[in-house]
Amino acid sequence: MSCTCMELALQGERLCKAGDCRAGVQFFEAAVQAGTDDLKTLGAIYSQLGNAYFYLQDYPKALEYHKHDLNLARTCRDPVGEAKASGNLGNTLKVIGKFDEAIVCCMRHLEISRELSDRLGEARALYNLGNVWHAKGKHMGRTGNQDPGEFPPQVKECLQKAAQFYEENLSVVKELGDRSAQGRACGNLGNTHYLLGNFGQAINYHEERLSIAKEFGDKAAERRAFTNLGNAHIFLGEFEVAAEHYKKSLAIAKSLQDRALEAQACYSLGNTYTLLRDYPMAIEYHMRHLRIAQELSDRVGEGRAYWSLGNAHSALGNHESALDFASKHLQISKEIGDETGQMTAQMNLSDLKSMLGIDTQGDQANKDKEDVPDIALRRPERARRFSMENMEIMKLTPDKKEKEKIEGGARPKQKVQKSASIATDMDHSAHPGKTQIADRDSKKNGLSEEMDEDSFFDLLSRFQSRRIDDQRCSFRLLESGPVTPKSVPATKPTDLASLVASPGTEELMDMVAGFQVSRMNDQRASLPAFPGLNSGAVINQLLTRGQDRQVPDDSFFEMLMRCQASRLEDQRSELPKELPHPTVPDEDFFSLIMKVQSSRLDEQRSQLPKKNAPSTPGKKKKKGT
Fold first, then answer.
1. Would you say residue 262 has pLDDT above 60?
2. What is the rounded distance in angstroms from the CA atom of residue 79 to the CA atom of residue 380?
3. Any bridge partners for residue 478, and if so which?
4. pLDDT by residue (tens digit) across 56-73?
5. Contact assessment for residue 137 and residue 162, using Cβ atoms and an 8 Å cutoff
6. How far is it, in rounded angstroms, from Cα 81 to Cα 72?
7. Closest by CA position to 160, among listed 192, 114, 121
8. In angstroms, what is the C-alpha Rg of the chain?
9. Three-class SS string for 83-132?
């Protein structure tokens, strides 16, 4: 049986290394089903299964097997296995957004690596911690739509911690002489300083990343470095330098035959030439981006292209073309539910129609007329209806004087005085004086009849209690049928002994106790179970071996409290997920272009003349006349 499990695991490992992780997972799952008593083999299978599921983006399954790996390593008192499993678990938790738990796991990986003097493991732990803090900062800052360097203090704190861990990682990998790891650290440091607004430092790190990528011939990393350099130069106002970097990024994307990356480079170039006010070149690159976005069915990218093209044509004075692109932008924004895009497109359409002399108010009036029935259009003008002013306010709750009557007997019916609208209109046209008197009387009655606050809350509590009663379950205490509230008489204190001694009470208490026990069981923690382990005797020997087991220290309980605190985050509502946009880069500086465009509008505004007191030269006012 053990050999069969080993053979299946080896075949799964070969398939995963060949890139066929889906088939490899099937062999690993079969190995778990076959089972083994070798704990090292079982731990290796857990680790490989977690990594394979992570690659397949099945993060719940990856989390499950990495937890099995961690529990097994702790049970076996294997610090190396615990460090490796903690790192894998931290990476998985980071991807699913549980950053605090991920930090705890990565810190445990770092602590064990330093205890074992494992410099390579220490470098990996530092790199993972930088990634978690960087991801947490970006996640916290994504809701504000701020430009780099303008994030709130809590976001900047996360990014600064990420930079600290990346710098420690860089020093360790330099000591180890790992040039590839140095390139990764420099790239991440450049991205972090870019978000912090340190664009000069970001450029230095990205240039170092570019040189290392050229050493290894890593074209993908080289393209990323050129793109990041272009983004940093944009915020320094060096648009010509940024355009050169984007062109090199576009050339590499073409050589890699990646249409989405090519579209991203075209989009960035179009925006850069817009900032340079070279609108013909901007239109050329935005049209290339539009064609690729349509080819890849990227509706978000297509909407951005129409938006950019409309702005460029408007700047050139081609208002008819700009109107066409703005209409298409509005249509796509409605389709994908982009409220900001809809508002922007509607404002652009309004401005363009006013420039072209199109009567937008007339169109809106005609549209409103189309929504009104013909009979309403033919209706003659008449005086305003006063039927609602003559209607009495319905009493939702009884007055205090009637409270005793309601509690003692049946609830009185409440009436609402109706008034015919036709009769009111006729009276208003025939006797305008009477109508004014009636209006004054009705206003006095409306002010005098205020709702009783205590009665209102009494009614509210009654409705709330009904909602709670709807969630209660009924019990069959007697054989005659369910007990309803009407059939239960009022119990006096002297009858408590007889009620407790009744035959149905004991069954009721047993049922309540059963419910309470099930609730307690839901909150209990279960001991780790290891799928694929044939015999539990091996685990029992490990658990009972040695009488000198240490009591968990304060750091363990501190880690436990952090993990418990993160459970509250699981109950929070998520932000709406963004639609995929493969042709639009993540670091989109479109807001910067909007600021530049708005400054151009301000330059075209005229100032109102200052109002000065009229004065006639050579003449003075006489005082006292």
1. yes
2. 90
3. 481
4. 999 999 999 999 999 989
5. yes
6. 9
7. 192
8. 37
9. HHHHHHHHHHHHHCCCHHHHHHHHHHHHHHHHHCCCHHHHHHHHHHHHHH
Q: Helix, strand, coil: what percent of the chain each, to 5?
A: 70, 0, 30
Locate 163 and state its tokens.
């930079």
Give me the DSSP letters along 413-477: PP------HHHHHHHHHH-HHHHHHHHHHHHHHHHH-PPPHHHHHHHHHHHHHHHHHHT------
Backbone φ and ψ of 171, nearest 5°: -65, -35
Residue type at 375 in one-letter notation: I
CB atoms within 10 A of CB 55: 15
Question: How many Cα neighbours within 13 Å face the side chain of 181?
Answer: 22
Element of type H or E holding 325: helix 319-336
- Residue 212's pLDDT is what? 96
CA–CA dist 436, 441 (Å, integer): 9
The answer to whether the Cα torsion of 320, 321, 325, 331 is positive or negative is positive
**Residue 431, both tokens:** 């006797």
Q: Residue 481's beta-bridge partner residues? A: 478
Residue 28 and residue 48 in contact, taking contact as beta carbons nearer than 8 Å = yes
Residue 533 dihedral angles phi and psi, to the nearest 5°: -90, 120
